Amino acid sequence: MTLGAVLARVKVVPKVGDTEIVLDRAGVAHILVVAGVRGSARDALTQVLAGDLDFMCLCEGLAYETREVQYLEVAPHATCIQCLAR
To answer: Could you list the residue range(s) of the whole structural domain that residue 26 is in?
Structure first.
């Protein structure tokens, strides 16, 4: 399942500091942290939240991909050593 699909189904608006684990193109699982929540995400859960949330990767290994959260695959656990060390 993609992170975009997960966000489309949430019942509670994510908060700054909440985390999710996603796979990069090489299959390594990184930890993403919600770094910001913009206007409409706070106001209405019926909208797609992916466009209203800002994410950062703990190791910065997903710098570009964090802008494309609707395509990132969710993973069950982190495998990136740098993300786990932080």
So the answer is: 3-85
β-partners of residue 5 are: none
Q: How many C-beta atoms lie closer than 10 Å to residue 41's C-beta?
A: 22
- The count of residues in the chain is 86
pLDDT digits (tens, 9 = 90+) for 44-80: 444 545 557 888 898 978 877 666 777 889 999 999 9
Q: Give how many domains the chain has, as a whole number.
A: 1
- Give the integer Cα–Cα distance in Å for 24 and 78: 11
Tokens of 82: 């740098």
The letter for the amino acid at 84 is L
Cα–Cα nearest to 60, from 24, 12, 15: 24
User: How far apart are alpha carbons 82 and 74 in whole angstroms?
Assistant: 18
Phi then psi for residue 5, to 5 deg, are: -65, -40
